[in-house]
Structure prediction request, 557 residues.
Amino acid sequence: MRIGCFNEARLIILGEKGAGKTSLARKLLNVDADMPEERESTKGVETSFWPFKGKDGTDVNVYIWDFSGDFITNAAHRCFMSARCLYIYVYNGRGERGEREDIPVYWLEQIRMHGGDSPVLFLINEKDDHRADIAKKTLKDEYPSIVDYYSVDIGSEDKAKLEEFRQTVMNMVNDNLSLDSQVVSMEAYKIKDELREYFENKKSSHITRDEFDEIAENCGVPPGRIEDILKDLHTLGICLWCNKPEMKKFNRRILNPDWIANGIYGIIIQSNNKNKYKLTMSEGTEILNNDKRYEYPPKKVAYLFRLMRSYELAFLENTDNIFMPGILPKDRPDGLPTFNDAKDRLTMRFNVDKVLPPSITARIIVQRSEETFNEELLWRKGAVLKYKGSDTIALITEESRSITVSVKGTEKTAYIASLRATIRGIFDDYGGIKPDLRYEVLLPEKPVKSESPSLLEKEKYLMLSEKEIRGHLDSKVPYFYVSDGIEIPLDKTQQAYAIVTKTEEKLNQTLEMLERFLKSGKTAIDEARNLGAQEGLKRLKKLSSEPASYFLKRLLN
Prediction:
């Protein structure tokens, strides 16, 4: 089997609207290219092909993805970003601020979430002789993937600095990206070329997995190598393969990423322009009807709707229309329910150090869409949900660094535990972000020093971290509120919020694994579960059955 190198890479350009991303994309292709007009700002994403000669004279192909800086489209970017790419972050040198307080951190966090340790070139587009004030060392310490900082006036008639940066990008592609030196079979080249030709010439939305496998086999690729090549083509952006478990129903199709991105961004942007967060199939078809690049008949629009649901950009209200929470009104509505009585509510808050991922509330709404009982109580940064036909409701509010959930009603413990699992799952999907989870705890009433013995101090509450609560419960050490010396009964907090301690977590994991490994001993397992965490683990360690003994020693000791 002949081997060679792909010598191909994917370049992703990110930054705020108006920072100069589209200008840079054009200037990378041709340093003398005209600057785009203001109306030519990127609508969603624009892709372009940049071929050049490598250091050894070989052909190098770079696929440029220029992403829109519009906040309304940011939630969709994660669907098309990936690791093993070269990222360029373009910072507006005038230091203007948008919706977020710390703009560079926002975009660098997105790259870290979806691009892993992919290298990042931090380009400062210095306009009008303005010098940006950036904490370069601090950012570099926090984001070691930043290769370096580059100050360039992209629109300047003096192109020396721009040409120097352009050469830096070419060198990065040649020397540092994992894909450019990846040894692959020459047969993989044929697949890549056939796939690109198929998408570009036929303007097709997809080919089936069976068709892809047939192409690969005809190119001489062994069956065991086909999936590896498919993953590489997905990373390069030549195709889009939905290989996540939750998108299993789509993984039999190899999608044209340009067709998908063009359609999804078109729906989001034009719906937002019309202030329509609900869209019927016919309206979606009408939006894409005049697209100059691809055809989107009703059947294909229905497919886009389903794909948007799988990406959690929308939920299907019925078979004919979608609901897009990410373009709901910004401002919170009037008539929100009150949660003033601390004794009748449960509240938890997820705090992050930097910034929240974009449209995290929208993803919660999509996942819990069956609990959206009144769309007038939904907005872009919050929602009121209702639990399974009960009287229990939840208020979810999003701020720049936190998500707060308050629940009241007869099933508030079950509901807040269920919402906690949903939100944790979403955070895990963003590169394993581990937020600091805190619970509201009401302090016990304390008599006030007064002649009236019935007078009580005004109730207080504080937010305790889950880590701290679990630590005290596991060690059985009482928790005292420092300023007043009041003991807080954490067992009640644990019960109210259904908090699982580390010991209980270990017991549950052990039992689950035991049930998979053991064909006998069910009685002992049931007894251990009923005894609780501490005693349950002790009982398991005493199991005498031979099938369990070696396994338990490895697991528990």
